[in-house]
Amino acid sequence: MRTHSEKNPVHLSVLINGFVILWLLMAAFPFLWTVWGSFKVELDFFSIANWTNALTGENTQRTHEGAFTAAAYEGAWLQEEFWLAAINTAIVCVSVVVISLTFGTLGAYALSRSTHKYTFWLLITALIFRAMPPVTLVAGYLLPFFEWNLWGHLSTSIIVLVAINQPFTLWMLHSFFQKIPKDLDESAKVDGCNQFQAFWHVIIPVMWPGVITTGLFSFLLAYNDFAVTAMLLAKENHTMVPKIASFLGTTQTEGNVMFAVASVVSATAPLFILIMFFQRQIVAGLTQGAVKG
Amino acid sequence: MKHRTFFWFILPTALSMLVFIAMPIVSVVTQSVYTPHEAVLVETESCGPFGCSKETVIDQAATKSLREAEPLGRFVGLEIYLDRGHLAVDEVAQAWRDSEGISEFISELNNLPFYRAMGFTLTYTFTVAPLMLLLGFLIAVSVNRLNRYLKGLVIFFSLLPMIVSPLIGSLVLFWMVDSRGILGTFLQWVAGDPDLSVKASTSLTWVMLIVYGVWHAAPFSFIVFYAGLQTLPGDLLESAQIDGANRWQRTWHIVVPHLLPLVTFVALIQLMDNFRVFEPIVGFNSEAHATSLSWFIFNDLGGETRLLSSASATSVLTIIGVAILLAPVLVRTWRDYQRKG
Amino acid sequence: MQFKLAALALSASLMSGTAYASCQIDGRVSIVGNEFPAIHAVVEGAKECKGGEITSNLTADHQKINVAGMTGNPAEYTSAIIANSSIVALMNDDLLRPLDDLVAKFGQQLKPNQLIKIDGKVMAIAFMANAQHFVYRSDILAKHGIETPKSYEEVLAAAKIIREKGELEFPVGGAYKAGWNLAQEFVNMYYGMDGKFFEPGSAKVSINNGKGIAALEMMKSLSGYMNPDFLTHDSNATNAEYRAGNVAMMNMWGSRAATLTEIEGIPQEVKDGFAISGPLTVGESGKSASTLWWDGFTIAKNISDKDAEATFKAFMNGIAPSRLNEETKPLAVWLIDGYEPTEKAKGVFNAANMQTKPYPMQPFMGLLHSALGGELSDFMQGKEDAASALADVEAAYTAAAREKGFLQ
Lengths: 293, 341, 408
Prior knowledge:
Distance between the termini of chain C: 48 Å
Number of strands of chain C: 11
Strand content of chain C: 15-25%
CATH superfamily of the largest domain in chain C: Periplasmic binding protein-like II
CATH topology of the largest domain in chain A: MetI-like fold
Number of domains of chain A: 2
CATH class of the largest domain in chain C: Alpha Beta
Strand content of chain A: under 5%
Oligomer: heterotrimer
Structural class of chain C: alpha/beta
Number of helices of chain A: 15
Largest sheet of chain C: 11 strands, mixed
Radius of gyration of chain C: 22 Å
Order of helices and strands of chain C: HEHEHEHHEEHHEHHHEHHEEHEHEHHH
Distance between the termini of chain A: 25 Å
Largest interface: A-B, 94 and 104 residues
Radius of gyration of chain A: 24 Å
Helix content of chain C: 40-55%
Number of strands of chain A: 0
Structural class of chain A: mainly alpha
Helix content of chain A: over 70%
Number of domains of chain C: 2
Shape of chain A: globular
CATH topology of the largest domain in chain C: D-Maltodextrin-Binding Protein, domain 2
Order of helices and strands of chain A: HHHHHHHHHHHHHHH
Largest sheet of chain A: none
């Protein structure tokens, strides 16, 4: 493709570059705006009186020395202990990714290597399971979890997130495994490996890009989840998203919107780093798996 | 693979789904055909900081014996599915008899909460999916032609809308699109109407939700298509060029067919996710203008008095809806399987 | 809020010095409740007790988990902090224990009006009160020679003047967000019209009448002076409008009014003009168009007597009159003995003095509230008339009440 791109006629280049710039503006502007606004006071952030206040920071200047203040970050991280939520999120995400991938690779490998008819129905069932709205599932968990003293712990939410995420993981990994020739594990078995050894020593090493891509989607699911973590975690175990939601206050009680804004920015920062790091792998993974229906 | 080996491999994933998804589904289906017992009401005096008043309460002793006799509740069959809060068969029949034309019938239908939610859910699902596929494709093709050094940066920014939690993403946009916010002011300037308010109008709220949906989902199709483009057979393109095919012909006859299998995958996931649209409705405070099936469930579960049977019935209807939506894709997958098997 | 929490931390540290050394408990205490500074203060006080294990889970989602958390045996939570609307869900499932014997043994400090009695039995202990009342900008009203409005009719007249003078385009604010908030405004207005929600002694709803229509028409007229986005404005957004100086008059929660001008960056004229009065009236009835609310604690039925006693004693320490000091007083309108209302608590006190009705505790009120929240927005947008909107509410309520077994 690159050879072609060098021959792009001028008008096409302009069109393409213009489109990319427009898209980048759409994709990134809301975040840049939020980052900018997070260093202001609430009145400037919402700028209900006049939208230019958000740029000039008129009200911020009145209360703080300059047009920027890190008060919201200080409040959220130190006073409201947002770091605790960050640690909880880290624990939940790492565990969900590791467990989902373990369960998922085993299951998807089996599904891709078995030729029996029931594999199709298993995949379809998994898909139907994915149709269930998480809100309903979570409401159903409450009673038994309280009854068995499982409610509120990080481990409970982790296993629930793993389960909810299994259908997607299975489908994605299944399409990756199908791309890997069956001769590979057959020859390993001829060499005296059993099925699991073939899976572990021969298949997994060539599967890395696919595993990383799938893992990234699991990570995003756990990182961004609200329904499960808000309802199944005790207050002190809350992850970042429910913590941010709790800054917003309720009908009868005052919240602190600027803490929420600062936390939103803080919660997005690790994702930046993550994407920087794994960008190549995701694309490589998707290329190799060429996820197909 | 032997059944036995297969069993051990599939066990962890199957078990987790069985316990945390299949069992709740069974209980949800059960719950949707049972309702709580008739409450025995008594009038009593209740007193508090602001004086005494007559209040109606549930006679617990009388209700308890009912509960113990049938712990699941009253069996009502499909009654909940058919009541006004859901399929509303009586009301729909009534509206059909009374209305004098199809438009009046539709407006009557719109007055029923379930159909109103369904109307938005379907519109959302069927507009967001094609638009996000198209936008994702355009971005993928454009980015693929970019300079190698620019690519990394562009990909990184392009993924932002997808990786941020939908609740937070919609909240940020909601703040910006306020009639005094930066986007709201911009729109007023574009439309030349200083009183324009997106949040006050039903149709503009729908547009806003759909635009948000496309914005949020486009990076997903972009990254999948972009990956697909990397495996594009170069020799095929080359030979097409030699044969005199122009740029559009090459795109249309080679690139698009190559990406078609990926479209199925993206469309499948998207249809399913969009049918369950929920967070944007909460984030955009759009209950007055647009509701969805998932929001409906959330609302039933979130009130002071929770409507479990109603929420369960809506959940079952959601699953059925998704199954119908996915039917064509499933049939295709089945044929693929037959061919391979 | 920042100030509040700092004050709270300070008060907690001050008090730990003078803490009730005498508070000894023997049992498990586990509290679930909403999250705001006043409740934090109470729970902090409860945690000063020694001898038992005291845990708390204070979260805005408390209502979604308290029923499940008190259902098991023994229940996870020994106590739920609730309000008069949310006690109903716990009562309906028979999860609360009568507190009469505990009050007799350990509750000497309680005033009679703190006891929530249902059918003669004490089911909850209230410790703070709340109500919606009028909040306005005294400077703007004075500038145009407007007397402080006492009724919604006067608010409309004042709004007309303020708009015509070009002072503000949308002088009226209100938490009219579709759903719970909008329904709450209807409840206020309907009570102001002296309406009754249900036929006496039954769960049969009756709001589709002249009073209901009049209430809706008044809400519609008010909305004409509100920001056109009013159906998306909850109390957060309404407060933000007031803070930015865009709104001169609004009906706001007492618990929110106290902190209204305390955040950073509020223009000086808004701070100076900030004023509160009591609830407004509407129509001829002279009744207050608002509802009174209390927050209090309950104790679970499915726990041992020992744990119940420990929980009760811990709460008695949490709401002890001696804990009222300069830091805790402004946090809420306390019902605790010895509390003198601060200036900002005036609105809620006026509400009580005007014989404002408490928010109803009927087991099916929550269903009606949800039905109102879902069906009234069509009317507010002018898509249907008041009578058919109310008919829709009645139909939606009836379907829900049938499902829950309240109606046959």
